[in-house]
Amino acid sequence: MRHTVGALVSFVRRVLGRILRVLGLRPGDLWLEGYRRERWLFQHTLCDRYWLNLNSPLRLLSEHDAEVVEFDLLRFAHAIDKGLYLPERRVGFGRDKIRCILNMLKLLAPSAGGRQRVVTWAVNILRRYARALAKDLETLDIASEKRVELANWLEKLRDALEQFDQLPDVCEGPPSKTGLSDIYFKRRSVRCWKDEDVDNSVLRTLVEAALWAPSSCNRQPYKFLFIRDAKVKRMVLDVATGGRGFADMAPVVLLLLVDVRAYYSPSERHLAYIDAALASQNLALAACELGLGTVWLNCAVEDFAKEDELRGELRIPRWYALVGAMAIGWPLDDTRYEPSVRRSVDDVIVFERFA
Ligand SMILES: Cc1cc2nc3c(=O)[nH]c(=O)nc-3n(C[C@H](O)[C@H](O)[C@H](O)COP(=O)(O)O)c2cc1C
Q: Which CATH class is domain 185-329?
């Protein structure tokens, strides 16, 4: 019976689709074609990342692969950098990640130009990791078997890092003479905050700045939901998992929502995310100007039950897309992180057409 109803519904949809197409209206197709193209585009996220397979031999690097290795190196080294400052970090954490980083460094080290900047940055993170591990081994009470294992690991890491001895221990920072306001270069993601609240009046100022961002057709379809309650913050961080281990400490977590009723067709769905992202960047820059520290927390939801629970708790209407979250607070100090790195302008700029 269910089968027959399903077949009937699909038949009616197909007939309706045909009629609409003949009339020049193609709502169903917009969905389908849009998704098909997205699938076609995003299948490139599944490219062969052989450098992450520790057992496969490293091949000669093509330019195509070099670009992806650089993305992966940025991502992996960033995770180690971040991990170094987590209050509850495991001693000797992220060993597999570091082995992958060493693979990527081997591949990218010979490349010239802007990539050297990223290579130097990543090497410096590993150097700092090695120093932190050495200190942990000196100062912490670690079971003897584990201690031997960690000491061996440290020795291997130090040996591997020797091949990069010629690289400087400071990485090129933001450019100094651009003629631009330094706000673009000063903002950094902050993940350690003072135990001090942020007044609602300050949050209102941030939202004021966010509202003056450009938005498609000036729709400004956002809602900025600020959360202080520890239990609810935890719920947010169960959804925005990238904030685990540190974002609880922020006095305020912002949930960035966008009202999809503002858009007219599925073909506009990306605009919702662009609009919200632009607003959030305005907000982050304004926060930086006021001396606040922010960090974006991505909501790449994998556990939809948790999202539903959060939506229920916060009574978020169904037509709001959950774009992301941001932890906000007064920074504890600004010297705790390896200075951030940026790819070289030459590697991201194209005039007229690709070579
Ligand atoms: C869309 C987006 C999602 C992000 N998600 C996270 C996250 O989940 N956790 C985190 O610690 N940082 C997150 N970040 C912050 C980035 O890691 C950070 O911007 C990047 O490493 C560059 O560092 P900077 O902001 O200090 O220049 C995110 C940033 C963006 C734009």
A: alpha beta
